[in-house]
Structures are given as C-alpha cells and as structure tokens.
Amino acid sequence: MQSIDEARVKIEELKAEIEKNNKLYYEDDNPIISDYDYDMMMRQLISLEEKYPELKTPDSPSNRVGGKALSKFEQIRHDRMMMSLSNAFTAGELRDFDSKIKEYTKNPKYVVEFKIDGLTLVLKYEKGILVSAGTRGDGVTGENVTQNAKTIKSIPLKLKEEVDIEVRGEAFIPKEVFYAINEMQIENEEKTFANPRNMASGSLRQLDPKITASRKLDIFIFSVENDIEGKNSHFELLDYVKDLGMKISPEKKLCNDIEEVIAEIEKWTDKRFDLPFEIDGMVVKLDDIALRDEIGSTSKFPKWAIAYKFLPEKVRTKVEDIIVQVGRTGVLTPTAILDTVRISGSMVSRATLHNEDYIKEKDIKIGDYVYIQKAGEIIPEVYEVDKNARTGEERDFEMPHNCPVCGEKTVRTENEASWKCTNIFCKAQLQRKIIHFVSKGAMDIDGFGEKIVIQLFEEGLIKDISDIYTLKADVLKNLERMGEKSANNLINAIENSKNVSLDKFIFALGIRFIGANAGKVLAENFDNIGQLMDSSVERLTAIDEIGEKKAMSIVEFFGIQSNRELVEKLLSLGVNPISKSNSSQKNIFLNLKVVATGTLEKFKRDDIQKIVEENGGKLSSSVSKKTNFVVAGEAAGSKLDKANQLGVKVISEDDFEKLLSLDDTEQVLKYIENI
Asked: How far is residue 271's CA from residue 251's CA, in Å, rounded to a whole number?
C-alpha cells in the first residue's frame, strides 16, 4: 500500500506534468501528448487526492473541473472601476487621438493588441493563489464566477511567484469550439448562439461549472490593475504577466508612432478572419504607465487608450421574402427573410428592414440579391442591393393596410416612417406589451418568460397586463410543464414585483420612446405615477433629456383612457411604484454586514442586495466574524456552516421580511439577538 509520503511525491509529480502540458496546449499551441493521456493523468491525480484529501491544495489542477453547482451568483466589487474605451473607425480619428496625447509628451509609444470579442474577467491573486474572478457587471460591481473561471485551463490557479496582483483579461470561445457547439445545438433542435461572445458569456454564467468546463473557454490577459515596482511599460508588463504563467495575446506590437499603429491595424484588417478567435478591432494604449495617470480619464473612458473598430463584414445573399411583425406599441416592422449565410461568425437568415422609407431608399424588392452586414458586428442589416443581378422577376413590397395579426386597419403616423396597427387590443400588441412588462429591467418577474406569457394568453388566463396580478397558483399548476412548485414560485415572484421602483414601473408600461434611462430621469422629477399621468408637454420638456418627441409620447399615452385605467387597476391590485423622494427606506441596516446564501423563495439575491444597500448596509459575499447576520434559504452550504462555526446569527426569509417593518438599526439588532 502506498504511504502518504509516496502519495505526496506522486501528486506533486502529476501536478507538475499536468501544468506543463496545460502550458504547451493553451499557451504555446504545441501539445505533445494525446487528450487521452492527459485525461488519464488527471484521473490519477483526482484518485490520489480523494484517497488523501489532506494532500489536496487550492492550486491543484483538479480544482478546474466539476464542483458543486452554484445556486446563484454573488456580487463582487471591483477595486478599480472598469471603464469602457472610446472608439475610432478611421486613420484620421487615430491621428486625432495621437495629437491629444502629444499635448503631454512629444514622442509617445503605443502598444497595439487584439480587441477580443469576449467577456472581461477580473482575476485577483494573493500570494500567487487565485482567490476570485468577477465579471465586468456595471463597471463597479460584477458577478462572482470564481468556480467557473477555475475551469478555464489558461487561468493559472497558482502563479510562478507569490505575488499579490489583480489582472483583467478577455475570456472567449475559440471559433472551432463555437461552430462545433452550435452544430450540436442544431442537431438537438436547441437554440444556437448568435456569436462567440454570447456563448462565452453564457458559458461563464452556467450554474454548473462542469458545463462551463465543457465549453473550452480561453482567456488573454490585457492589463494589470495594481502597481508593480519597476514596471512602467505596458508592453513589458504584459511580458511580466506571461512570465508569471498567465496567457496574453499572441500578437502585440510596440509602435514608435501613430503611423506604425495604423500600419499594424491595416495588416490585421483582412488577416483577422484567419485567426482562431473572433476580434472586432484593435486596442491602442499608451505604453508609458506613469504618464497615463497624468493624462487621466473622462467619466467613461481613459484618455490614454482607444479602440479601433473594424468595419462590418459584408456578405451577398438573396431576399426570399419580406414579412411584417407587430410590436408592443403596434408598430409594424418589415423583416427580410434571407437565404441563410454566415457573417461575422454567425448564421443569419433574417435582417430588419426598419420601415417603409428604408425599403424605398434602398430600393429593396422580394427576390433581390443584397449585401448584408452586421451593425456593430451584431445586428444584421441590408447594406445595399446588387441591382446588376436583377432579372425582372423581383417583386415590389408594400406595407399592409390591415394588421397581419388582427386584421384591423393600419395607418402611417404623420411625420414618421412607421405604420401602426390601430387596434390597441391586437393580440400581437398585447402579448408583446406583457412580455415587456414582466421582463428584466421592467417589473423583472422571475420565471415569467415569453413562453409563459404566450401559454397564459392562449389559455385565456390573461388578456391584459393587470390580469397578471389576478393569477392563482391552483390554476397555474394545472398548465402543461408547470406543476405545483413552479406555480407557487411564479405567484411569489409576481407578489414580490408589486414593490417596484417608479423608474422601472414607468419603463414597464411600454410608453413609446421611453426607455430605461428616460424612466430614471422621469422618476427623479416626479414623486408618483399620478403626477406623471397628469403632466403636460411643457412640464415634461422642461426636464433635461426629455425632448418634445418623448414628451408628446407620454402625454398621448396617458391621454388614452384605457392606459389610465390600466395604471389605476394595477395600483388597486397592490402594485406600489416607489420614487426615491418618496421612499420608505429608513437606514435600518446602517453599517451592518449581511450575507445571503442558499435557494431563496421570496427574494432574489439582487433584491436583498438592493434592500440592504438602500437601507445603509452592505451585502457581503463571505461570512466572517464581522458579519451581523446571514439570510439562509434551502440547501445553504458552506456559508451556513461557517456562520454556525463563528456564532453568526442565521435568519430565514420570513425573519428578513419582518426586519423591513422595523424603524431603526437598534430594533433590527435587538430582533436578531432574540432569534
């Protein structure tokens, strides 16, 4: 029988061999053993670690695969705000950027790197050990995806030096993997991914790390966020990162002036399609790190860096037909049905034609051969018609004078390019309105997706938005693919949505031209929905960011009696839009540290975070002696154990709900103490 000392030696040998081959495969693109041999080594390592658990270390390669499925992602706060990059599309714009840099230094040097089409991750190492990985999120707070990040083999769990370092990198799906997974999705009659970035993002947000591991993500590190003594060159800093064992872009160039930068970008404009991963541009950064601090940033962008965006790829295909879709505001949108083609890494079979004027301007006919491109490499659009290919068999398209869904009359709005269905009770409009109302960013009713809306609509259980708040679990549980638990969860989510912020409620109503940002602006200027309903065009246009078009749309919306009745009915059913100025927040969690864990029924983790922070507290991702209390749901794991070990108070969702009725922090602490 193998002794523990012999096992220790063998484990260290296997770890060294596996990490060596990880480097050869993921960093050097030069594998020397088969996948089978690699798997056998990994299997042997796992077997030994299971036999001698005391020998398993946090940096073991076995930690990359498997792991417990995560119930929900916790939030992680970035040490430094993650900013975006300003864009350039021409050589002239790059020269303008250079001119501004030369106001600070006569001879700037630049580093040019690939702009990877992926998902940014922030990796934090302490004494060379990976301790956390977070997504970009809103730039300040992201999702903690540490367990999933550990499945990315090009992310070292242990660096070659015991350093404290925070780096940022772009996680991505190689093209080959992207195509293979999409082909599998098609075979299984499942939805395909639109592009590699979407697949990378979806893969990192899987609840089961095993699924993430199967997607074979990769990553290139592109920046270091803390100061490294003796390193003032970005180019040299990237080499230092590589020496630590991290993977950087295979192509980076130090340029002595902006003309070298432009030449490097031109080189990759066409060559980019030959790369094994998607790039949508090149990033240009000032090499001098110290000078970056002097140059500074705007509120959104660093002034010392810029992203050059490639012009969209254009592909020729045929317009097989033009159909019309009806939106939630009744607007009719023509859509081209295309002979399916691949463009910018994805398969495209449809392209929006926007409106009647767009079709006339482009002179698009059914049967035409057209060139399509992706606006911003994402949304397919018709760029131009190949008129030389016309045979005379092409057909003109006319907007329908009757709604294709309900058959009622359609009209073209004066001074606009849009045709609209005049029937406010049109099935298509009502469905889209409800889908929008329950969506994330609006009322955010968890589990109330498009399929559920359509199902409830077809069953006659909902006819308008207000019917959502009359649904009963006893009725829902009898629906196909629903069941008692799902029905109860949906009813709870509907109930929780009643206490909604005023800005989200405004956005949820689906007023034309009023998006999420306009909703926030309006909520800052009105104490309640009633004030907004009774406002005039003059009052609205006096608000910054609310122009005449938006103001007219609001007044017209609330000028329709059925819309006013809808709002009043929602209020009578318990929906309570709360403005910041009229908020009932009482700072009851002032300076308190709270942790949420397990599967929660009444609250989503985002809800708890919002409530805690708006009441002066902080939602932490880990339990410590400084934690004031833990909100625990079903299947609470290690955090619950840690809380019990440290003697931290653990409360239920019901207890948390009761806390919200208290008046101050002192009452909260007293209540918790008596549990």
From this structure: 12
**Domain presence at residue 563:** yes
Given a cut of 50, whether residue 26 has pLDDT beyond it is: no
In terms of DSSP bridges, do strands 331-343 and 419-421 run parallel, antiparallel, or are they unpaired?
antiparallel
**Pair 329, 464 in one domain:** no
User: Domain containing 396 — which CATH number?
Assistant: 2.40.50.140
Q: Are 345 and 177 in contact (CB under 8 A)?
A: no
Whole-angstrom Cα distance, residue 610 to residue 614? 6
Stretch 134-151: mean pLDDT, rounded? 85
* Domain identity same for 553 and 652: no
Distance CA 295, CA 99 (A): 13
Higher-confidence residue of 364 and 280: namely: 364
* Beta carbons within 10 angstroms of residue 526's beta carbon: 22
Integer Cα distance of 244 and 221 in angstroms: 11
User: What tokens does 624 get?
Assistant: 């410590």
The backbone torsions φ and ψ at residue 586, rounded to the nearest 5 degrees and listed phi first, read -125, 15
Q: How far is CA 387 from CA 27, 318, 370, 398, in A?
A: 48, 12, 8, 19
Q: Which of 601, 671, 611, 592 is nearest to 635 (CA)?
A: 601
141 and 285 share one domain? yes
Reply yes or no on whether the pLDDT at 352 is more than 50.
yes
What's the residue count for the chain? 675
Range(s) of the domain holding residue 36? 4-64
- Burial of residue 660 (CB within 10 Å: 0-12, 13-18, 19+) is middle
> Is 115 annotated in the active site?
yes
**Rounded to two decimals, what is the model's pTM?**
0.47
What is the three-class DSSP state of 152? coil
- Catalytic one among 115, 124, 285, 550? 115
- Determine the Cα–Cα distance for residues 63 and 278; give it in Å rounded to an integer: 28
- Quick check: 415 pLDDT over 80? no
Residue 525 has pLDDT above 70, yes or no: yes
pLDDT for 483 beyond 80: yes
Q: Tell whether 418 is covered by a domain.
A: no
CATH number at residue 94: 3.30.470.30
130 and 227 belong to one structural domain: yes
* pLDDT at residue number 379: 61
Q: Are residues 261 and 318 in the same domain?
A: no
Question: How many Cβ atoms are within 10 Å of 5's Cβ, its own excluded?
Answer: 8
Cross-strand bridge partners of residue 370 = 317, 385
488 and 508 inside one domain: yes
Q: Kindly state whether residue 560 falls inside one of the protein's structural domains.
A: yes
For the chain, the helix, strand and coil percentages under 3-state DSSP, each to the nearest 5: 40, 20, 40
Domain assignment of residue 358, yes or no:
yes
What is residue 117's DSSP assignment? S
Whether residue 543 sits in one domain with residue 481: yes
Cα–Cα dist 663/192, whole Å: 51
> Mean of the pLDDT values across residues 448-467?
91
Mean pLDDT along residues 90-105: 95
The answer to whether 370 touches 397, Cβ cutoff 8 Å, is no
Digit-coded pLDDT (tens) for 577-610: 987 655 555 678 887 889 998 887 778 777 788 7
Rounded Cα gap, residues 633 and 348, in angstroms: 43
